[in-house]
Each structure stands twice: as C-alpha cells, then as structure tokens.
Amino acid sequence: MTNASFKPTLPFIKAHATGNDFVVVDSVTQSIELSERDTIFLCHRQTGIGADGLLRIAKASDFGVSDAHFFMDYRNADGTIAETCGNGLRVFARVLVELGYEERGTFTIGTRAGTIRVAVSPDDVNFENISVQMGKPQSHDITEIQVQTEGGLWAGKGVFMPNPHCVVNTVDISSVGTLLQAPKVSPSTAFPQGVNVEFIEPIGDTHIAMRTFERGVGETLSCGSGACAAASVWAHDNDLKTPWTIQVDVLGGTLFIDSALDGILTLRGPASVVATGFAKGNEWQI
Amino acid sequence: MTNASFKPTLPFIKAHATGNDFVVVDSVTQSIELSERDTIFLCHRQTGIGADGLLRIAKASDFGVSDAHFFMDYRNADGTIAETCGNGLRVFARVLVELGYEERGTFTIGTRAGTIRVAVSPDDVNFENISVQMGKPQSHDITEIQVQTEGGLWAGKGVFMPNPHCVVNTVDISSVGTLLQAPKVSPSTAFPQGVNVEFIEPIGDTHIAMRTFERGVGETLSCGSGACAAASVWAHDNDLKTPWTIQVDVLGGTLFIDSALDGILTLRGPASVVATGFAKGNEWQI
Questions:
Q1: B43 is catalytic
Q2: Domain region containing A161
Q3: Could you tell me if B152 and B96 lie in one domain?
Q4: ipTM of the complex
Q5: Which residue, A90, A91, A225, B143, could crosslink A130 as a Cys pair with Cβ 3.0–4.6 Å?
Q6: Which residues lie closer than 8 Å to B144 by C-beta, 6 or more apart?
C-alpha cells in the first residue's frame, strides 16, 4: 500500500492536546491557502479527517508579525477564524520543534491575539510538558451568577481569560448530569457573547478535576483557558499565594496551571501526534 | 514536511460512504494484527484518527473462506467485532480496486455474515456507483409498533435485513424532532436486541428522503441496511412491482436500492477516499 494509490496530495498532521484535536497544515515550505470550505471539509468528522480546528503554519512576516518566526493561523471547524487556543498552541509548538522550524527551549508564536511565549524543554523527550503563557485572569464584576444543569442549580463565578468562563464548584462533577444540553447561565446579561462553563471537584489542596462545556460546541475533553479559569477560582477560594501550581484533571488528560508571582498564568501539558498523511483536495491548490 | 518526522508507521486509509466513515488497514502485504485497544485508539474521534469503524483487509484464506480473495475484518469503533456493513463494503470494494487487489467488475468479499457480491463498474471512474448485494428483507410478525420521538407518536413497520429496523412514514422528516435521544419503540418485546429506526418522507414515486437513528450510536449520516429496509417498506406501501429502483436521500448523500425480480436487494452509492497516511502505533506490531 502506498500513498500514491489515491493521489491525495495535501500533507497534514493530525494531533491532539489532552483531547482537543487539530489538523495541522504546513504552509511554510510551500504556500497553501485554505478556503472556509477547505477547512470545513478537512475538519468534518465523517466526510473529512475530523478535528476541532485547523492550524496552518504560516510565516510570521506574512501576518506583519516581527517578534515571532511563525504564525498560528487558527480556524474553527466551521471555517471561521479564531484568535488563539491554549491547547492548539501546545500542538503547534510541538510540530514546530519536530519539523525543525524551532529549537527546543523558549520561543514565541504569532497569533491573532498577539505573540505568545511557549516552552518545549530539551528534557521533555515525549512532549508531555509543553507550556504556554496564557495571561492574567480577570474576575467578572457580576458576582451573583447561577448555572442550571440537569443535576440542579449551582452558583457560578465569572472569569475572563480573556474569553468568558463561568466556574462552578461541586463536590462531585458527575452530579451536574449529562451536559447534553447547554447549562443555562443567569442573569443572561452576565455574558452577552455566551460563556464556557467549567465544573470543578476537589481532589487535593492543589489538585482538581474539571468538566467543561464550550459555548457552541458542547462538552469537550479539554479546554486550556477553562483550566486556567478553574485554577484561578480554586486558588482564590483556597487563599493560595502566588506562585502556585494546580493540577487540573480533564476528561482528555492532565493539565498543570502555574501562576507566577505577578498572577500571570501558564498552561502546561502534553501534545500528541496521532497521524501524518496526505488529504484529498477539495478546493485548495498548491 | 515529511512523514518521517514523527515516525508513525501504521499505514491507513480514511474513507467514507455517504458519511459512514472508516479507517482501512491493509493486512495483506504485511500481516497486521490489531487489538481491541488498537481499534478503539484508531477510531477515537479526538485522540485517534476517528471513524465509525475499522476495516482490516485480510486474506480470505486466513478466515477459511474459499469463495472470495479477501475478507473484510470489520470492527466497531468500540473494538467489538461486527458482522458486516453495506456502506463499509462499498469502501472496502473501492479500496480493493484502487490497491490493485481486485479488477473492476463483479467480485466477492468474505465477511462474518457470509460472502457478499459487490460490483465496481469499469465505467464508474469516480467510484460513485458501487453496488453491494444486501439480501432479502423480511417483515416483522408484529405489525402494531409505535415509535415515540420529540415530535410525536408514530406508527412503525418492522423489517429485518437481517439486522432489525423499524421504518416510520412521515410527511416531513424534520417533524420527528432532534433525535438527540433514542426513539422509544413499543412494545419493548418487538425488538429484544434493540432496533435501528428509519424515518422516511416521500419525494417522488420512487424517491424518498430518510433519517436514521442507529441503536447504540445515535442519528447517523447514513445506514445502508436502513436504506434497504426503508425502500422495501416504501415499495410495499406503494405496490411497486419487482424489479424496482428507489432513490434514498440520506443526510450524507444519495443511495439507490434495486430490487431484483426475486426480491433480493442491492445497495448502490459512492465511496470516497479522504486521506492516506501513517498512524502512530498504540499496541499493534507489524
């Protein structure tokens, strides 16, 4: 069996970071432009390769970015443009190192939300501990937030990372129910653009379990900014002093959130490459 | 970018037939044994490649089958062994032809449900009209079957292909509701092993639209045996005389069901190859 049989010609990598999965396309050695329709095709679970989103590796200079070598051109599975993604950045950092585009150590990646610092340690042979600087959490002004799920009515805390999150403390995260339907967050004025909801459960002093419901998607295996929001609420509620590290067990694996003295959060965790190959074209041209 | 970067070494093909998708692994040129855990890994949507099932191409002689060259070793995404699958057979037939294992024309494929006749016409350059012999539908003895959905209560007709189906006539298939939850079929004694439910809507004299809810899975883009069951109910209700052909529009594309004079049904439709590549191993060994 050879790849030549079917003549699919778009090189791709399928990878995931704690269950958040991506199709990665390298547009550095040969320029590849992907339309909205291409993205939808590649990310479709049944009729394409299937992924939460598409990460195109572009030269930073093509996006007018001078403080990074490469730019993460990130698209959602529905073809729309997205700013950035903590889990996606771990995958992106690993791929840059494996392709020989960046050396192990600390480097920067351009995104639509600004240039982000990442680190892939020389010791981290299996890419289990890639870190991404995520910024500082900001608490919501509205403090009386309620979240209705199948399992009952809960108190929520609003945190911006800067995308909107609502963190719910529980004794047992299974008690919130199936999450087949979106949790209902009130007052509706609290998050006019919608909100991601994180349910957390204590495991230890600096160790929590988390389930996440992403707006417009549903329950997902992992959410990097959600883990940061959850850790910041846990640290606040438990009077942790910076610097601290909190382990967050998500359905798709284990994440660590580090807070620096100044409160800036770093997301750490693994990135896995599942497959490499060639995809059939839809509209794209090399 | 080369495939060598990450050293994934299991060759695979990702393909679909009207939205029913499969990872295909060739175990002919080099013997590949896949464990239940390998199958679960490869079929996982986020942390693997993602598919409804896995099709391993094996030598028919390895399964004691003498009336076919190759055997479709079919596994469900949960790692369990499955007997056969009409949409899977179209994908399998295409791949056998593209790999040069079978010549275009009519040939046979061994399955756990017996040896099945398929046809890939020399004229069908784009593999849009692959046919699979599906057998004869058998009506259920129980004629008073009711199906409860979000949209209301419906009358159902039981058909075995030989797997169990319950076909519901509607004026508009959207009126049954979301199908996020399994339709409730009663009496519960009618299908002790569970049942797939097909909702059909008239488009023309020999043309219907169909939605399908597969037991244990949910609403899917296509179901080959379900399309056969639906067409047989439509033909019966509309007094069609054999031979007949009925077009069935499913969410994932278009299928044609042909009935021969003797009532044996053939499923016809496309099969698409989406990607070829190399997957990271889990437990498997070459």
A1: no
A2: 138-269
A3: no
A4: 0.87
A5: A90
A6: B187
